[in-house]
Each structure stands twice: as C-alpha cells, then as structure tokens.
Records
---
Amino acid sequence: MDAGEEFGAWLVRQLKRTDMSREELEERVGLTRAAVSAWMTGRAVPVDETMRAIADAFGAEYAGMHTRTTDGAGSGRPVRWYHRPAYTDGGRDFGNAATFAFDADVEVLAREATQNSLDERLDRSAPVRVRYTIHELTGENLARFREAVRWDDLFPHYEAAAAQEQKVGRVIAEGLRDMYERDRLVLLRVDDYNASGLTGDDYEDGRFSAVVRRQLDSRKSDASAGGSYGLGKATLWATSSLGMVLINSTLSVPHEGRTERRLVGRLDLPWRTVNNEPFAGPAWFGEPDTAPGSEGVARSWWADEETVERLHLSRESSAPGTSFLIVGAHDVASISADSGKGGDEGDDEETVQAMHARLVDALGRNFWAAMTAGRSTTPVLEASVRTLRNGHVVIEEERVDPYRVQPSRTRALKAYLDGETVDRLTESGQVALARVPLTVPALRGQRGAAEHEAVLLVTAAEDGDGKPNQMVTMRGNRMVIREARVPDLPLGTNPFQAILLAGHAAGEDAAQAERAEAFLRASEPPEHDKWGQTDELRSVYSATAHRRIQEFTSAAYRSVRELVGRAQTKSNEGPRALRDLLRLDGGPKPGARGGGAPTIRGLDAGLDAAGAWHVRAEVRLPAGQDPWLLSPVAKFDVRSGARPVVGWSEVVAGQNCELVEAGLLFKAGARSASFTAVTDVSTHPVRAELAGLVVELQKTRGAASR
C-alpha cells in the first residue's frame, strides 16, 4: 500500500475530527475491538473491503485511503476563529509588544521577511525565490474575501478593540475606516520557494509553533542565519493595520502524512471585552482541536484548492515554502511621503504604486549581494514584486536586478566570485582585494581566540550606486548589515565603493568562518544593522569583546584608504599632471548679513577620449533656512591673460540640489550638496591638456541674494 501518513495515526485523527468513538466505528463497520486496536497501534492494516467500509464511515474517498494525504470530505470541522480567553489573574496585554520593535514600513518588512526566507533556504545549489504581491480588493471582490475569513464573526472584536484609546486601538480604527469608507482593502502577500516551510507540530517545538504560536523563538539552527531574536516575523503583523496574517505552507518534511496547503491564521488584537466576555488579545483561524487539553483551540488544517483560492493564498507550484498574506497592509513611510507632496490621500493607485516602488528599492539596497551570481555560482536569492487590483495587473511583475540598483558593487562582487580581482588598482573598472583580520574571542569561560580573514573589495564608483566612498558590511547570507562613509579620506580621492565580506560571505573555505559568523551574529541588534556591543555579546563572550569589532572595522577602513590612495596609472581620467592643475573657487563672497556662502570643498575631474572634462563637485553650504540659487562656471587657467570661460555640455544635480532653468537650486537647510558636469569641447579655446581647469560657483544674475 503506497501510504503517506501511518494508517493508525490517520485513523485516530479521523475519529477525533468526527467526534466518533471507537465503539461507534466498530458498530458501523462491523469490526471487532481487537481489530481496531491493532490498526490504531500500527500492528496491522485493514483489508481492501474493510478499507472501503471505513472510507464510507468517514466520508472519505476510497482512493485517498491508500495515500492518506487528505482527510475525509465529511469529517472536517468548520474552520473558525478561536480567541484566547483573558488571563485569570487579571493581567492585560494591549497589543503584541514584539510588533513595536519595528516600524510599520514595507521597507522594514522586505528586509526582515526576506532575511527569514534566506535563513530557510533548502537546496543550497539553487536560490530562494521570494515574490511580493500587492493586491488591492474593492467592491464584490472585497465582500467575497471578508466572507472567506468569517468577517461577521470578527467584527465585534474589531469594534471593541478600535474603541479603546490606546496605540493599537487607534491603528485598528484607521484600518477599519480605510476599508469601510473607501471600500478597499490592500493585501500584501510574501511567497517564498525553495524554503523549508512551517514544519512541525501545531504546539510542540518546530518552525510552525515558533512563527504562529510563540514570541522570541528564533528556531534558527544555522550559525550563518541572519535572524537570531525571533522578532523579524513580528513585522508581518506590524504591517497589517488590522493585525491579521493568513498563512499557507508547503512543507519540506511531511506532517500528518502530507505537505501541501497547510493553512492557519493569526490575529493580534489588544485585550478587549465582547458580549461581557474578556479576551486576552490574540486569535487563531483554523479547525477546532479535539485533543485533550486543547479542545476548541484553532489548529492548522489541510485546505482544498477552492478554499486556498478564496483566501488569496494559492501558490504557483508545489515547491516547499510559505505564503504570508498580510491583511490590510499599510506603509506609514510612503503615506507620509505622499502627504509631503501634497498628493490626494484617496488616490489608491498612487498608494499601491508607491508601495511597489519602495519594496523594489528595499530589496535592491539590502539584498543586491545575495542576488549576485558568478560564472560558476548561482545567486542565493531571486526577488520580484508585482501589483494587482481585483485580480488584474496594475504593475507587471518586476524582478529586482542587482546590476541596475548597485552597478559597481555588483560588478565588484562578481569579480570576486569569478576570481578576477587584483591586489592594487591600476586601471578603471578593476576590483582590488585585500584581507582584513578579525580576532574572534573565545566564549566566556573558555580559552583560545581564533583568527578569521574577511575579504575587502574596492572598485571605482558609478553614478547609479548612490553615495560614493561608502563601505558596506555583510556576512552569512549576504544581506547588507551596514553602509557607512569611510572616514579620513584625503581630498581628491577618486569616488569608490567598498565591500567587506565576513564569515561565510568571505567564502565557504574561509578560515574560522563558523566562529566568525557566531561572533558577529551575537554583536547585531534586533534590526541586524550594525556590529557592536550587545547584551548577548557581553554575556556569551566578555564585556570587552566589542573591542575586537572596533579593531576589525578600523583595520578595514585603513585597508580601504591604502587601496584608494594608490595611483591608477592607466585610468581614463587624464594625466596626473592635469589633475593636479584642477582648481576650485569658493563661490560668492560672504554677504553683509554674515553666515558665509556656499563653497566647493572637493573637486574630482578627469578627461575623456574626446578631450572633455568630467567634473564631480562637493559643495559646503552655510547654516541657514533659505535656498541658494547659483551657477557653476568652468574656466581654463591658461599661462597668461584672463581665464576664458568654457561652456558645459551637461550639468546633473546631485545630493540636496536640483537643476532649474536659472542654474542649480541648493536645498534650504542642507549643509552639503553635490553636482556633476561635463565641459563642451566646442567651447575650449585650447586643448584641455594645455591648461588647468578652474570651477567657480557664481550667483545667478537677477536672483535673490539668499
């Protein structure tokens, strides 16, 4: 017999699900007590004819009795919401404290949820595939979804929670208002494939109970895992203005003999009273349990395809992984940004488009390295975002491309994966590699520190990278931990990007990678956005262990400065003698009112093959609340006579400024800004090689003084 679940376990569960006693089954099928006992204990299985009779008794299909991967059609209890009763000692929880560890922000969600998916990667030879789907429901589609989640049963609880004058109650009230007044509900689904799925029992130790039943339970067995606090999953509920998340999991390890369509829902509400009955807070959506001690508690159930579709939880394949459906998704950061633009709060399409764009941006910034592959290596992650409205496409599925969001950094990492790095930069486009030592201290009470060598990569920056002269750090699954400007760079340093790979990110054969992973993981806060002193680091290692982190970071910065300080003798930026002739002018003289004027504090430039100067300028702005309107002017510093002015073929605004018809408008209140420009060769009075270049900032004619 080609069995899934053991027949005895299947039989026991069917008796519980149907509230049928063993004696009743014996009477219906004409069995002896000894025969049923033998089946239940696994000592025997019934013959074919008896199997048919048992199938009829449970309302199960006869064919399914052989595989036992489904329950009887008539044996399932109707799914419902189970609300946890109030504590008998009078304690009250006005919300899940774990959700306040993070902002209700889809950028934070993308970072935390994707990190959790990477930690559950199953087949190490293939990437984890993560897809975010924004789905806005209105009208009849919204009504059908509310019916599927038994909204009428939930509404009294929502009404009681929203009436409370406290933080969670106000968020819920706003979520209800948005749904009822605007007749819309935004669903945000996070699907991962090639991941473990929520395996394990409903209540005992395992991935399922860690996510659905417990707080601060990480369940991460791999030392290179990104998460360690068990808080990241809380971002799912924090992103829901209704506190509701529905889950559909395809398991990598069978539970109850099956793997597909294991469903459950969890609702996080504050303490409340409904019909004079107090409730503690959380609720679960599932099948009522019949096990002793858990009677009536909602547990996960094995759903049919129609139910999964009605709940908008259909998965595209049978590959293991989990789908989380955030009901009533809201993004406080994008809403604030839209409000600042004076946009219409009721523009639903603009709202979902902003959410889509922020998800794509967050995935690119945090996981570009995980999405980078070498010639002989696969990426760790593939990620995409799509947006729907009532089942119709609003924005096509957009796969995040690391080469588009982080061009030079992706190029640098690929060069390392392909073994194409150099030990010093001599040509444009090269990637330099250096080794940075990390001393990993022994665990508290033990002896013997370990030496780990992290990998440092440095390459020239490109415009698409964002801020230049930054160093990003990462470990394990190659999620960006921190991005920071390299300090103490000499003036005139060519723009670059640096990457510090530690632990397993430095390579599977890196010495002491496992110990480095554990050490760095212990040094990360719940946000996993830096390495430094933490309570765990102090308790597991020593009170001074964080000093090894400081030494490591300082050594990395020194290595960066050494690499970028070496001359690039074959670069396309023109002869060194010409670059030395670059001069900068401070711009407008200070006015009578004091406070100074904008000055150019850094100027990088080089010649291209056509003889045009490519200039990048950093501007220091004086303190003040007014904008500055100025024009960049290029002049040739010839050997004799007045400096001739040359024209620009292109001026591009950078940080804290914008290009307007009259010149560059520098942002009010900003203290620094940048711009890039290219000279017009047709206006050069002599070849650029024969003169130096001077760049000035001049007040635009006719503009206000400040």
---
Amino acid sequence: MLGVEWLLDAPAPPYTFVLPEWDIADPLGPLFEVWFGRYGDNPAAAELRSRFARVAESHTIGADAPVPAFDGLITPIGLTRLDLEYDSDDSASMIVLVDAANPADLMLLWTARAAGHHVLPWPVTHADRVHAMAEQWLRAALREDALGRSVRGDGRDLGPTIEVITGHRPVPGDLAVLLRDMGITALPGSSVTYALPRRGRHPFLTASVREFSVPLAPEQRTLALPMPPVGPARWRPDRHYAGIVAAHVTFTEVRGPHPDRTLLVPNLRSLSTLLDAQPANLAEPFHRPVRGGRVCGVLADSGTDEVRLRLLDNADILDGLFRGSGWRPRQEVNGRKVAELAERLGGTGSAAGCEPAVWQVLYAASKSADGLVHDRLVGLAQKHRENWPGPLSAPDGRTGYATNVVLALQQRGLLEPLAPLHCPECGGFTTVPAPRLEADMDCSHCGRRFPLGYLLGSSPRRFDWHYRLSDGITRNLMAETRPVMAAAAILACYHQQLFPADLLPTAGGTTMTCQLGVGFRFPDGPREVDLVVVLDDGPQPVVVIGEVKGGLSTQPGDLINQDDLDVLTAIQAHLRNLGVECYILAAVLRDRLEPTEQDALKRLCTSPPITLNDHQGFMHPVLPIVLTGTDLTQPLFSNGHLHRGARHGLPGLARETCRRNL
C-alpha cells in the first residue's frame, strides 16, 4: 500500500486539510489522538507532520472550549483513507460512548471506524464540549439520508434511527434528549458489526495470498519466505518509491525445528520487542506478532521478493512473559533431557506419549542388558496396545500397528541393535553393539580371536538381532517424559489458529510453544514447573502451566500436593494481572486421584476466576485441567478421549476433566 503523503505534494491538492492541536493536559486529549490523529515523536513522524503542516490550516482546541466540527476538512486520520475505495451496504452511522481515559473505549471507537462505519464519538465526561458539533453532525446525516430507519413489530414507524455503542453503559441523558429533540431513535448496543465491502476490497486485505512450504533445518536461525506479488506498484511522481506492504505470515505447521527455538511468538504486543526490526529502507519499520504468525513491513517493490524471519529462543519468550517478576524462568538440565527424549519420540505435539505400547516396549528393553529380539518386542507392543490405534486408522494400520511401533522406535534410534555372539571354543555368550562389530572379534571369555563370519555361522541357534535401550535413556527419564508428553498431546488437540477469511488450510501439526522442566526463582526458594505451554485458544494466547506426576505409587513424592498448586496459582495470578489468560494443569499417570489430591484440586474450583476474554461469545470459569492415566492413554476421536465431551476449547476441556476426575 502506497503511503498517502504523496497526495500532499500535488501542486494544488483537491482537498482542504486541518491540523488539530490541543494541550497535552486536556482531559479529552487521548480521544483527540484517536479521533483526529497525532504524529509521534520519532524523526520519521516529525517529517510526516512537517509535510502535512505545510498544506494544512492549524487549529488549536482550547482545554475547555467546544470541539469544532471540521466539516469538509481533512484531518491527519482522514488523510489515511483518501486513497481507499471502500463502500458497503452494511455501513452504518453510529455513536460510540467513550471514556477518554479508558483504552478499551478508544479501541472500540477505532474499530467501529475501521470497520467501515460513519462514527461520532460521544465522551461520557465533558460532553458539553461536543454537543454543538454532534448536533451539526446529526443534521448533516439527516440531510444526506445516512441514518437507518426501523419499523417496530407492531407496525409503528420509528423514523430515523442510529446505533449507540454503549460499552454496557446506559445512554447518557443529554445525548438521549438531543436525539429525541431531533426525532432520532437511539438503538443501544455493545458490539460493532463489520461492514462487508460492496465495491472494491477491504483496505487491509489483498488478494495476494500464497500457500507454500519451505525447508527448515534444526540448526537454522533465520527463515526466508517467498513474498507473493502485490500487483502493479504505484509510483511517487517525483521519486522511485513504492511504499510498504504488511506481510502477514501464518504458520499452519512446523516440523522438525530445534527444540529450543520457535517461529511462533504469543500474540502479545508486549513481546514485539523480541522480533527483529526489518528496516527495508524505511525510517519506521514495524514487526509484530499476530495469532498464528507474524506481520512485518516489506517494501512493495522488494528486490529480493522474500520476507526473512528470525527464529526465537523459547527462553526469550519465557523471559518476556515474566518480565518484571524477578522469577527468572529457565529450563532446568533435567527438563532439557526430557525435551530431548520427547523430540526423539516425535515432539511435544506427538501422540507417542499417549500410546501404552510405545512405553511398554521401551521399559522391557531397558530391563534386559542383552536386549530382546524383534519378534519379542512386537509381541509386547501387541499385548499392550489397549485402544490403539484410533478409530480413524485404516485397516492396514490396525493390522501392522505393533510392528510399526517397534520399527518407529528403531528408526528414531531409541532401540540400538546388538549382535549375539557364541564362542565356538568356550561356549561363552556375549552381545556386541552393531557399531563395534569388526571383521575379526575377540571372545570376551577366553580371549580367542575368530572371524566374525565364523562366529555367526557356528552359532548353535539361528542368528537374530537383539535390541536394547539406547545409551542415555533411563527408566527415570522415561517415567518423567511419558506423562508430560501425553499431557502436551491433549493440549495440542485443542490448539486453534486463526486464518484469513476464505483461507482454511489443513493443519497437520501443531505450532504451540512448549517448555518442559522450567525452574523459577521464588522468594522462598527455587521451584520447578513440569510444563509451560503457550497456545492459541481464542483471540489472545493462553498459557497452561502444569504439574505432572509419572509415578504409579501413592507415596508423597508421587502425589500432587497443596504446595505444588500454590506455586502454579502464584504464576497464574501473575500472568492474569498482565492480561494473559492462564490455566493450571494437574496430571497423574495413575487411573484415579487420591482423596488428598482431589481435595486440593476441588479448592481451586470453589471460587475460580473468570476468563479474561470471551470465548466464542461466552464467559467461562477458569477451572483447572485435571488429567489421569485414563485420559492420557486414549487415541484421538475414540469414545474415551476428552475430545468427545469437551466443547468451547480450553474452558470446555477444563470443565470436562473436572467433571470426570473431581
């Protein structure tokens, strides 16, 4: 989109411009900024203001003076829409009630105008300053037939009508009197509808959309994405400059990234500073997170035809979320080991954590120093498959499931092959890892040396490779990894993304950000949280913090206690105070909770907080997400999966888990 300042450079601009100014202490100052526009303090903004001021009439609004109507005059905000074609049958005239000190009201005013409506702000304080201007605005709307008309259900004609966006306030008496005296009926409402263009396109969406995939190696720190063509460039008459476009990048799936890095940044404006500024020859670039991706400024005639993005460290995102808390969140060494094992099993979004057969094969292999033959491992996978595979699996997938589980573990290097060797002289038996096999081998018992082929051929039994657990993987590590992976897989099922209108690519994976084993430095000592997940579940990102117990006993170390929940509650309160929704997750691998665990979790349900943002039009209690072994071992879409009973995303998931387990 070409910047509109070129309209100011015409020898005789066809418009009359006005530059409103006001005292910084004016109580309506924040409203004027949104209503008329205010240039910033950086050098680029100062240059733009200077160019506007050269062709504009300056008008100062006194601190207690009435607000002028500026009829027929173009303000700095008005300049930004001069080059847009946007007309709609759905556009309406409306009045928005605004508390100038309330950012939410100012955003509502901005949204109503950006949605294509003809908008008049009405301040809830100092309304006398806009009374005369509002009367003039309404008379012009009546003359131009810009107001709606309504007929009541009993047939009575209500005459001209106007929507009054109240923000859940009553219509002020002075406004009600003004509308009544002018014969206009007020239609109060609390939300803004979006006007769909009848002619042209919405000014901030283009038809330049491109779907593609690009390779991503684990060691990469930057990613180059192809930029779609943006149509014929419009050139400034006096110089070669095509302006900038907002490149909106949405990720539908990320496979094989480095476990410590991510392309996704939670959609919080406070985290924009984590993103690289992309100068693109502009004095004032922009680069910010959006839901499911990023937006960055790119020259419309970019010679490289690409957008370059930097991968971010998960640790930096954690730092940004907890900036100012002094808690210094860091992934612990043990958490890193858990994350590495989870990555080898397919990543934190993988369903491997929920498959009993996977873990029974690994546990059995860990108990045998000499390893187990392939057929024995397949038999174990078949015996412990439970409800796997899921109901949507093809017939071939069902019959070959056990074999495929073992092959997948071998392919990922979790089961290493051993050669069973029998000495023909002393009869000694030993197993040798495949990488250590040589053309000639020494017997570990008698020391005799034989060719490898002779050892294999003279074996008293048929040669079969044995498989044991790879080095570095212990039973304790598996016990910690399994329930954490399974809990993350449950959350991945409810991970939602937002795509542009009419573009709904199928997401085969998850782009949620997940950190395992995160340590916090609280005033009373260090504490570790097993799971910190950032995902999309509505307009704003949601953080889930979890305590996960993998032990099957009822010893104190394997129970969720009040101290664990106090830590999670403190983190939840901190994030919610920053406007970030946060859910507590508590999971055990046992089939049921112990009474002490139930009591502690029920206390979280007695007076839970309410969701910060409405979810699909509803407000919900922020209940804990409570998972047991039964929940953590179900295939997706099976009758026992939480997906069957939960609705409304994470709020519904939390409610369903509490219903089942509490």
